[in-house]
Amino acid sequence: MASISKICLYKPFSLSFAGSVKDQTLLQRCNFPATCILREQVPLKNECRVFARMPERTGTGVSTYLRETGTGENGDYARNDLDISHLISVLKFCGGEGCLEFGRTYHGLIAKTGLDGDEFVNTSLIDMYAKCGDIDSAVMVFNQMPRLDVASCNCLISGYANCGLFEEAFRLFMNYESWGNKPNSYTYSSMLAICGTLSAIEEGKQLHAQVVKMQYLSETAVSNALLTMYCKCKAMADAESLFERLPQRNIVSWTAIIHGLYQHEGFEKAMRLFCLMRESGIEPNDYTFTIALASCGNMKNIDNCRLLHGLVIKKGMALGEFVGTALIDMYSELRETDDAEKQFKEMGNLTSKVSRNALIKGLVQNEKANEALDAFSEMVRKDAACDEFTFSPILKACASLPSFMSCQQIHAQVVKANFDKNTHVGSSLIEAYTRCGSVEDAEKVFSRISAPDVVSWNSVIKAYSQNGNPRRAISLFRRMIIKGFRPTGSTFLAVLSACSHSGKIQDGQEIFQSMINEFGVSPEEAHYSCMVDLLGRSGQIEKALDFINNTPIKPTASIWRPLLAACRCHNNLRIAEFAAKHILAMDPNDATVYVTLSNMYIEAGLLENAENQRKLMKLKEITKEPGCSWIEVNNKIHKFFSRDRTHPESERIYNKLKQIMMLIKGTAYSTNADSLQVKEDFCLYHSEKLAVCFGLISLAAGKPVRIFKNLRVCTDCHMFMKFASMITDRVIILSDNYRFHHFNKGGCSCGDYW
Question: What stretch of H or E contains 546?
Fold first, then answer.
């Protein structure tokens, strides 16, 4: 016999108590008696079959269907042959397919034929409206019912839950007995699911007690709902205890407890239970394998992961969408991106948007931004659908390079796919443009987001903080609070950085205090480090040292480093030695400490001390990270090192550099130009100068030159960029490992406070 879900494709003939176990179970779920099962069905016309297969059913399609099947306004079937079982099956079909308008049409037909007083029909109407998301209509039908049974109450509870109206669901549950009804197993399963969603552990335990009292614990559906509820409420001890006492365990029970352990990082326990499940004779399904692969990947055991992969292949599941994607995730977690890409290719035509997103995300996580961009380009070439889970990671790839051109191209794809107002994609776009030094584009993206959240606000505040506009950053911070958003630790870090970059000491101190006293956000290592930088950069070295000594946490190397940098800037050798001692105690291989002290000793005339620092570095085999700068031209990244002559355009680059230096020497700013001349031999061929000269000879006139450097820019190169921007009439944007410098017409956005 056909299943209930297919009854709408048949014309009812008569009623009987016959029916498969599956059919009866489906009806009993809402307390429908077995008499609603059809004994015999006669196929309807082809029109009904065609209608059932329509991907989108319009009003015209509904009208045609009703007219052709004789159930319309003028159909004899509507007047004479309409029976309850047919209505129930059609309404079930409408609810399952989301055909709200079709369901409304049948509701009108029900009212016209006087069948709206039947409790089975009304319960089916409630179920249909609830599943279609029209909860108001479901409540209207419910309130008009002369007698409320447990089936109608169950349907409305499910409807409330599906629409997120959990309080209304609880209120309805509390009224069961006042209507002369007792909750059944389906009621408890629904209510336990709601408790899990809300993490309402106390209410869940009360329901657990009722389940035991009503002797429903032996029903697998209820016990599984209890198990899932405890897992979602993070009560894993209760979940494991319940699982041990379960009289019957099916695949759902095992999967629920394994998933719960995985979610709470009990990866070894999850894998142990996975093995026990197989030993007990229950074979894993796609979902169980997906969780097992994720758990195995997080355990970082490549041998076990390959064994599990072999089992998946043996079961013939390796190329399925869910398990195949889980394999990609697993190998990405293990940093085995070659295996992840191999798995993706083996899936062939079975790859989906989900598996493609998993590959891109894995490549980005493993710092393979270029490969991720290639994978995304392949998606675009194949006209594959993209969503927020595609755009967010690929924009992170653009930010990590950073690649302004790629960011612009992907932004165009975002707009084309109508995701430009999406909160998550918008935040990723802001971050990407910020890393590329284009704060104007970041602001435009922020203004387009339909409902910005805290992450969006943090991103745009950070954009102005890093790009030399502290006033705008602080202004946005205050505007964010006025609009009712509660700042997070990331918010305060961005604003404190803005204050540090601009010397706004009072503002920074007030914001730091409000963070603790007004908003209750506990400062972390990065916040303390930022405050040390704020005080030290302004020359208040002693106050910065006092701040470190009074921090409630043990000062780390990251907190001492900005003090050392401030000492270097303000020539305080005594405290520099003190700070260096603390840093090296925690990080003895920090090359920056040795180099900083060596340079300070040279400037102080203590050449022997400087030589000792160099000898220590050589003895400990500590090497300084070489300075490297890069620029993007025509979608290609060009890297440069100090005195680099490996680039094909080296001759033109060096000629351009000499030309600019000659023009600088001829300017009216003779004092600063002389300063550059003194350092010419030492600093002339620094990597950022070579990169900017390549940009000047390669990019179209008037186009900004964007340079990125892995180390902090030196004073000489900073001065050079100011002169170069004035002489060439170009905007030069330089990002070092600390902040952005926007050079224009001889000035810098940092105001020389860096």
Answer: helix 541-549
What pLDDT is attached to residue 71?
A: 44
CB 752 within 8 A of CB 502: no
DSSP class of residue 747 equals E
- Structural domain ending residue among the three candidates 259, 277, 295: 277
Same domain, 145 and 242: yes
Q: How far apart are CA 418 and CA 13, in angstroms?
A: 49
Q: Distance (Å, rounded) from C-alpha 716 to C-alpha 722?
A: 10
Write down the residue that tokens 């284009």 correspond to.
438
Residue 512 and residue 580 share a domain? no
Q: What is the pLDDT of residue 78?
A: 43
- The CATH number of whichever domain residue 152 belongs to comes to 1.25.40.10
Angstrom distance (rounded) from CA 743 to CA 194: 57
| Strand pairing report for 636-641 and 38-43 | unpaired
Summarised one tens digit per residue, pLDDT across range 175-188 is: 988 888 899 999 99
Q: What 3-state class would DSSP assign to 561? A: helix
CA–CA distance, 593 with 624 (Å, rounded to integer) = 10
Rounded CA-CA distance 105/72 in Å is 9
pLDDT exceeds 70 at position 702: yes
Least confident of 99-103, 303-307, 337-341: 99-103
Distance (Å, whole) CA 749 – CA 754: 10
Judge if 483 and 607 occupy the same domain: no
Tell me the per-residue pLDDT of 474-529, one tens digit each, with 9 for 90 and over: 999 999 999 999 999 999 999 999 999 999 999 999 999 999 999 999 999 999 99
What is the per-residue pLDDT for 118?
87
Do residues 501 and 561 share a domain? no
Greater confidence, 68 or 725? 725
Tell me the pTM. Answer: 0.78
Q: What share of the chain is helix, strand, coil (3-state, %, to 5)?
A: 65, 5, 30
Q: What percent of the chain has pLDDT over 90?
A: 78
Q: At what angle do helices 404-416 and 369-381 cross, to 10 degrees?
A: 30
- Do the domain assignments include residue 705? yes
- The predicted pLDDT at position 468 comes to 87
Are 120 and 82 a contacting pair, CB within 8 Å?
Answer: no
Q: What is the largest CA-CA distance in the chain?
A: 110
Instruction: Assess contact for 297 and 334: CB atoms under 8 A.
Output: yes
The closest of 699, 741, 701 to 721, measured between CA atoms, is: 741
Are 504 and 550 members of one domain?
A: no
pLDDT of residue 358: 97
Domain residues for the domain of 659 are 628-667+682-748
Q: Which residue has the tokens 């352990």?
A: 261
**Tens digits of residue pLDDT in 253-288:** 999 999 999 999 999 999 999 999 999 999 999 999
What is the DSSP secondary-structure string of 153-203? HHHHHHHHHHTT-HHHHHHHHHTTGGGT----HHHHHHHHHHHHHHT-HHH
Burial grade of 280 (CB within 10 A; 0-12, 13-18, 19 or more): exposed
How many structural domains are present in the chain? 4
CA separation (Å) from 84 to 35, 48, 65, 725?
11, 18, 19, 82
Token couple for 511: 């914001």
User: Identity (one letter) of the amino acid at 49?
Assistant: R
Domain boundary among the residues 277, 304, 334 is at 277
What CA–CA distances, in Å, run from 482 to 59, 448, 475, 487, 522? Answer: 47, 20, 11, 11, 21
Is the separation of the CB atoms in 458 and 493 below 8 Å?
no
Question: What percent of the chain shows pLDDT beyond 70?
Answer: 87
Tokens found for residue 175 = 């009224």
Which residues are CB-neighbours of 479 under 8 A, at least 6 positions away?
none
Instruction: Identify the CA nearest to 457 among candidates 433, 490, 435.
Output: 490
Q: How far is CA 159 from CA 96, 120, 168, 462, 505, in A?
A: 13, 17, 10, 42, 56
Q: Is the pLDDT of residue 25 over 80?
A: no
β-strand partners of 734: 707, 741
pLDDT at 731 over 80: yes
